[in-house]
Design goal:
Helices cover 13% and strands 37% of the residues. With 174 residues, it is mainly beta. It has a 5-stranded mixed beta sheet. Strands 2-5-3 form a 3-stranded mixed beta sheet. Strand 11 and strand 12 form a beta hairpin.
């Protein structure tokens, strides 16, 4: 006695073939344009991370994965690295420390420390140097450090909203 099995005709079989598409070049494009280009070829936006590169317009695509010209399955995701929103650090050198702090805060920086450093040059109470330097492109909320001219030396440091002041010797620092 033979067992009977259902028979299938070749017309009943459906061959599923994965459709591959070429990943477009997205680097250098605005993020919105890059996402539109992905949609046009049947791909989707994957994970988006940010980075800061000097001189690049915010939300410009810096890198992608998979890379341009690679083959990917239709509907798959392309991860993007885009230029973060940045601010230009204003110059506060030679300003009184209170005006310097106000200008940096208004620009979107965070005052991390104000260090009074011994100086025989320049007006007392004015900023002798700053970090980050004027003209640098940084992320909003970046820590700023001011070095204020003084005949004494001490440090003001901000720690999660609290402040600690350490008095140092009156001797000049080298």
């Amino acid at each position: 006695d033979l067992h009977s099995f259902p028979t299938r005709r070749s017309s009943d079989l459906h061959i599923v073939e994965k459709q591959l598409v070429t990943v477009p070049k997205l680097t250098g494009l605005a993020m919105d344009d890059a996402v539109a280009r992905l949609t046009d070829v049947g791909l989707t936006q994957g994970e988006t991370t940010t980075n800061v590169v000097a001189g690049v317009t915010p939300l410009t695509v810096l890198d992608q994965q998979p890379k341009a010209a690679e083959k990917a399955e239709a509907g798959s995701k392309v991860d993007l690295v885009v230029q973060d929103k940045t601010i230009t650090v204003p110059s506060v050198v030679d300003l009184p420390s209170d005006q310097a702090m106000a200008r940096l805060l208004a620009a979107g920086l965070k005052i991390a420390s104000v260090r009074r450093v011994f100086s025989r040059d320049g007006a007392l109470g004015t900023v002798g140097s700053q970090q980050p330097n004027a003209g640098e492109q940084v992320r909003p909320g970046t820590d700023a450090h001011l070095f204020v001219r003084s005949r004494r030396s001490f440090i003001f440091e901000a720690f999660s909203g609290a402040a600690a002041v350490r008095q140092r010797a009156d001797a000049p620092q080298q």
